[in-house]
Write a structure and sequence with these properties.
Helix content: 25-40%
Low-confidence stretches: 500-529
Strand order of the largest sheet: 5-2-6-7-9-8-14
Structural class: alpha/beta
Distance between the termini: 74 Å
Number of helices: 16
Shape: globular
Radius of gyration: 29 Å
Length: 529
């Protein structure tokens, strides 16, 4: 009432104590005897409160004791019933109220997520429709106009353009979108520009919130570097708004480290513990590009270790269109699971990530991407990978004219897309050599997650990666470049007999140089044929 009337904050200094210590089996007098001597001399709160209610005429004398006896009898009856195998209490139920139209179980069923050209044009036109007199930054306006031209002329959209089309198409379809994170209005690498700032007065304009008079809301907030607090809020927001797309973006994927308590205790386990789900989306910039140990890795391996019982989705889209379809799929499905998306950094505007606008008007998110143009009968080596390293491998193959190697991308790592992967693998001859390639160190990344699953599918494979390391990445751009060059080359040349050498070592020294003279490097990590 004070806050509503005076429009000022209220601070309540609440002084309290625990009568029983940490829990009912604790003995706090072991370490705080004087305090607990004072506490035990005090009358209990039920007695104090009961007497107060009697003095105020709310209860009659004897009623507090009667309530207490009634409650004790009820608890005793329930306890005895449980011991006899009876259940006199309701089961905890989820998926009621605003969740009633949604299901609990995950499904790999395909959801069409393309939108019409008319919708894309409506979004694109709205991006450059500014209030009269609004002085937008010319560079930002050029980006938005470039997206508009691409849509109208059937050109290519970069990552930010495709993401913006996803958001715009959703709010026009009455699905609210909410995005928060450090610098997320423009994006850490300026790919988004979701809020424009007048260059003269610093007033703000959010084009996606002004596309149509009857659209859903688009909200975007720059948040402080308090990852646990902000992600915890957005996680809860998504639980209470299952039909909205709720996203949190880390400034760098590494910064999700600060929110791991929320991820471990809530995001990964809320369905298992409480029969509650959240459709919150984590956008985590990830990729080894010489940025050092704190700006390279979103710790993919940690998320994969938490994956069980279809509790969340872990995806690494490699094209702008894939990102577009993935975001729309999150809302259009008839269930909700948290979505972890490892997003690019340097490739945000690169040609190899751009997608034709036509790919946004049809199709769906593809959990496995093969190479339809490759003749399967000519393939001698099949490289499986996820994320940015695919583009490095494709570039190396093209520049050096390497034949007989096909690349297959796992765009979704969990829930494991076994049926889709098996369908792709059936295209290739039996006995083709299979290699898993990742740019993360051996003890990081997806290797320990994918290896047993691929082996269970009957594949015998080996790995090409960086050497195991306590740090996610080197801090030297020069060393990074040498490591990356060696890793990409090894992906095409390493064989099972020299598996240990197939890893790109941080020192960039060949393992053979350290082996006794005349001996080859050991193959202790090789899998049986």
């Amino acid at each position: 009432a004070f806050r509503q009337h005076w429009q000022r904050d209220v601070v309540i200094d609440l002084v309290c104590y625990r009568r029983l210590g940490h829990n009912e089996t604790d003995e706090p007098a072991f370490t705080q005897p004087l305090m607990y001597r004072a506490i035990r001399s005090r009358e209990t709160l039920p007695n104090l409160y009961g007497r107060k209610l009697i003095e105020e005429g709310v209860l009659a004398p004897g009623e507090p004791e009667a309530f207490r006896a009634q409650l004790a009898a009820h608890l005793l009856t329930v306890t005895e019933g449980v011991r006899r195998g009876e259940r006199s209490y309701p089961l905890m139920r989820g998926y009621q109220g605003i969740w009633k139209s949604l299901k609990a179980d995950y499904s790999h069923a395909v959801v069409p997520t393309g939108v019409s050209e008319e919708v894309l044009r409506q979004v694109a036109d709205g991006l450059t429709r500014l209030p009269e007199g609004f002085a937008a930054n010319p560079k930002v306006l050029a980006v938005l106009q470039g997206w508009r031209d691409a849509v109208h002329k059937g050109g290519l959209l970069d990552w930010g353009g495709a993401e913006t089309m996803a958001y715009g198409s959703l709010v026009l379809a009455k699905a609210p979108v909410r995005l928060s994170g450090q610098d997320c209005r423009r994006g850490t690498f300026s790919p988004r520009h979701a809020a424009l700032v007048d260059q003269n007065h610093e007033s703000r304009w959010v084009p996606l919130d002004c596309l149509s008079p009857d659209q859903a809301r688009f909200e975007v907030y720059d948040s402080p570097l308090s990852e646990a607090a902000v992600l915890g809020f957005e996680f809860g927001y998504a639980m209470d708004s299952p039909h909205a797309l709720v996203l949190w973006e880390a400034q760098y994927g590494d910064f999700v480290n600060g929110a791991m308590v929320i991820i471990d205790q809530f995001l990964a386990s809320c369905d298992s513990k409480w029969r509650r789900d959240s459709g919150v989306v984590l956008l985590l910039p990830h990729g080894f590009e010489g940025g050092g140990p704190e700006h390279s890795s979103a710790r993919l391996e940690r998320f994969l270790q938490l994956c069980a019982e279809d509790n969340m989705q872990v995806c690494i889209p490699t094209t702008a269109a894939q990102h577009f379809h993935l975001l729309r799929r999150q809302v259009l499905r008839d269930f909700r699971k948290p979505l972890v998306v490892l997003t690019p950094k340097s490739g945000l505007r690169a040609d190899h990530i751009k997608s034709p606008v036509a790919e946004l008007t049809r199709g769906h998110f593809r959990e496995v991407l093969g190479e339809p143009g490759v003749d399967p009968s000519s393939v001698r080596r099949l490289i499986l990978c996820s994320g940015k390293v695919y583009h490095d491998l494709a570039r190396e193959r093209a520049e050096k004219g390497i034949d007989g190697v096909a690349l297959v991308r796992l765009e979704q790592l969990y829930p494991w897309p076994q049926a889709q992967l098996e369908e792709e693998l059936r295209r290739y001859p039996r006995g083709v050599e299979v290699v898993w390639v990742q740019e993360e160190p051996h003890n990081n990344g997806a290797w320990f997650f994918v290896e047993p699953r691929l082996r269970a599918m009957g594949l015998s494979l080996f790995e090409v990666c960086r050497d195991e390391s306590a740090s996610p990445a080197t801090g030297s751009p020069t060393v990074h470049a040498l490591e990356q060059k060696e890793l990409v080359e090894k992906a095409f040349t390493a064989d099972r007999r020299h598996l240990v050498r197939a890893r790109a070592y941080r020192t960039t020294r060949s393992l053979d140089a350290m082996a006794p003279q005349g001996q080859a490097a050991p193959s202790s990590h090789a899998l049986p044929q």
